[in-house]
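Exercise 7b. Backbone tokens:
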């Protein structure tokens, strides 16, 4: 995105036919305010809303307007920029602007590569025969399914092979409500639909459409609120062996991708690995990693 997106709206925004509008029955957002709100979101989070996504913000933030009793989006923007209720509203704001789709065992080829190749290699390089710790980061973890998937794979497949290996997974997300869900570890049918039965039976308490992760799985994972676009917060995230940062780069433009991926690189130990989403690529974003092919997936190694 050009840095002056607010001043220089693309032609499709200036001419109404380019924008999908009027899909929600709530308050209407003018094009001018849309440009201001998306610039605000971009500066804060790296998320770039295309011209065609105005309807999404209109619908989602429109609900906030109704709850807060505000008459228009301009007033709302003023409040989240400078208002007294800013801090409280930011939580709902982050929830409203993010898409949190995820589920257990979402990208199986990555988990296969993790279990069968990456962890054995990293363990061998750390302290062969001695006690060591594997630190994994589920960056943009949403409601925690990826983090708990990794914990279960550790318990089921890795711990028996590497009894002297300690394991920790840290999950972070910008949306406070999904972090809260992750901490609770209670899910609905939708999240577990792709889960091998063995894991469901062994690591969950199931009942009436409610699936609760067992304590031994939860103990291995912790979840925190964190913005991947916040340079200062990113500098605290150091010493990871493997980072899963899947299905979030798609919401960024190239400039924010470059910043975030460069920070992820710094967060990895030498010889550590980065996984991104199936539909994502580091082509033109970073040449610092070595690309490695695995069955049906790729991983990026910090040399
Ligand atoms: C589609 S979900 C992906 C979840 C999981 N990684 C997966 O692949 O199943 C994208 C997540 O990225 C989070 N997100 C978006 N921008 C972010 C940012 N700047 N910092 C941290 N998380 C962000 C959203 O809140 C959302 O939960």
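Sequence design result:
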């Amino acid at each position: 995105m050009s840095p002056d997106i607010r001043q220089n709206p693309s032609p499709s925004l200036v001419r109404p036919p380019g924008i999908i509008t009027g899909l929600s029955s709530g308050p209407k957002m003018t094009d001018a305010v849309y440009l201001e709100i998306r610039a605000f979101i971009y500066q804060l989070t790296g998320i770039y809303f295309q011209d065609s996504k105005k309807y999404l913000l209109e619908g989602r933030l429109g609900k906030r307007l109704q709850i807060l009793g505000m008459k228009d989006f301009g007033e709302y923007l003023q409040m989240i920029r400078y208002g007294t209720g800013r801090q409280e509203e930011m939580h709902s704001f982050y929830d409203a602007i993010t898409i949190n789709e995820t589920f257990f065992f979402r990208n199986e080829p990555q988990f296969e590569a993790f279990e069968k190749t990456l962890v054995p290699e990293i363990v061998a390089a750390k302290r062969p025969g001695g006690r060591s710790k594997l630190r994994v980061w589920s960056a943009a973890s949403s409601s925690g399914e990826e983090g708990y998937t990794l914990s279960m794979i550790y318990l089921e497949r890795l711990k028996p092979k590497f009894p002297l290996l300690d394991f920790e997974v840290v999950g972070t997300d910008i949306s406070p409500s999904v972090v809260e869900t992750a901490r609770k570890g209670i899910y609905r049918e939708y999240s577990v639909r792709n889960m091998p039965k063995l894991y469901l039976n062994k690591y969950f308490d199931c009942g009436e459409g409610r699936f609760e992760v067992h304590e031994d799985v939860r103990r291995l994972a912790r979840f925190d609120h964190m913005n991947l676009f916040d340079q200062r917060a990113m500098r605290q995230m150091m010493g990871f062996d493997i980072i899963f940062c899947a299905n979030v780069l798609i919401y960024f433009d190239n400039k924010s991708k470059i910043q975030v991926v460069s920070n992820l690189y710094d967060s990895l130990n030498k010889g550590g690995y980065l996984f991104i989403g199936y539909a994502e690529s580091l082509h033109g974003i970073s040449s610092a990693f070595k690309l490695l092919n695995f069955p049906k997936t790729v991983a990026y190694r910090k040399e």
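Instructor comment: The beta strands are 132-139, 165-173, 186-187, 204-207, 210-213, 221-225, 240-245, 268-276, 289-294, 297-302. The longest strand covers residues 165-173.
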